[in-house]
Amino acid sequence: MRFVDEFRDAELGRVLSGEILSLVEPGRHYKVMEVCGGHTHSIYKYGIDDLLPADVELVHGPGCPVCVIPMGRVDDGIAIAKTEGVIFTCFGDMMRVPGSEGSLLDAKAQGADVRMVYSPLDALRIAKRNPDRDVVFFAIGFETTAPSTALTLKRARAEGVPNFFCMCNHVTIVPPLRALLDSPDLRLDGFIGPGHVSTVVGARPFEFIPADYGRPVVISGFEPLDVLHSIQMIMRQLIEGRCQVENQYKRVVPYEGNLRALEVMAEVFELRPHFEWRGLGFISQSALKLSDAYSELDAERRYEVPGVRVADPKACQCGEVLKGVIKPWECKVFGTACTPERPIGTCMVSPEGACAAYYNYGRYARDREVV
Amino acid sequence: MSFCDHDSGCITCGDVAMALTVLRVDEERELALCATDAGEKETVETALVGPVEPGDALLVHAGTALQRLEEAS
Fold first, then answer.
1. What is the pTM assigned to this prediction?
2. Which of the four CATH numbers 3.30.420.40, 3.40.50.11750, 3.40.50.880, 3.40.50.2000 does domain A5-64+183-247 have?
3. A155-170 pLDDT per residue, tens
4. What ipTM, to 2 d.p.?
5. Cβ–Cβ pairs < 8 A, chains A and B
6. Nearest to A318 by CA among A305, A327, A309
7. Cβ contact (<8 Å) for B67 and A254?
8. Scanning A222, A240, A268, B18, which has the fewest C-beta atoms within 10 Å of its C-beta?
9. By C-alpha distance, which of A277, A302, A343, A301 is closest to A142?
């Protein structure tokens, strides 16, 4: 398969594994956070952690778009979905995220017209085919997905589709990273930077991590060799006493990102003063809403929503998992009350969630074998 | 297209981007019909990568091309 096979070579993987081992300082334990859920998924799908020395620990970060959606926002979406005449559209995994009284999938079972889409453009297509119904698109995701929503909103306006609306839950990656770095209970040695977010924002937004916090960042691709190479690059920075943003994913990520995407986002969105992140609480300027210029397309202005903050279930420890404080299997309900089929917490919903990644690939071992 | 299944989940929710090849172009609307190597087809917004031609490889997420792809050397 093009763009894939060359990054799955087992022999090269073993070479990189050996190089990482050679870069470990005796007696030092390294904690490296993979920011993006896509990396978490790759790590457990391909068993990358088994190729690492025992003293190189991977910590899972908050970059799973579904995992960070708080229950209150799900409730708000369900309230809109249950409004007479509304067709409510959202991405697949989002339908299974529990709110305080069930998920969007449950709302669908109760009669709400909730439909799964793969892209915002699909939702717009539904709006065009149903001119007598309001079609609401529940937008989630980081800067990877936000440009797609922005383009679709521009298209809806340009093509004169009056029945298309957006409930915007897009979030931005830098504020939660800063929150994690300010957290006293987490000591990290470096970051595997999010590859697909960086195709849009570039590498520059991550420069604050080496500059302000003295930690290296390597923007990484998602194939097994990409991730191993990025860990090797982080380890090399550490042993050489360097600290900077490096780009392992140069074949896709320009250092400046995609300037057209950033322009479109700036036109359609503006920062919310604050937004609640599941497990991380309220973080200032960490999410997007529709700008005033696009306010007539804003579902939150068109519909009354409860807007109530809902506490996570007591048994759920998604917050600690999202902050990398505990491993998924250390959660009290992991694999018992909380499974991908019946998730309690968001980390078990999306395959990019750390808990689902552990669960789906049988990563139940409490201790890794020493390499 | 296998965008959402138990093994790989919803690729849009997962921030996953895929390599697609351009088959046909609607220049005026900045849309392109693209396909995976397996032949699965999808309509893609191309406004963020500029004019495209049949045969171009694009990195696509949520129906939008985010970058052009070059073959690894």
1. 0.89
2. 3.40.50.11750
3. 999 999 999 999 999 9
4. 0.85
5. 143
6. A327
7. yes
8. A240
9. A277
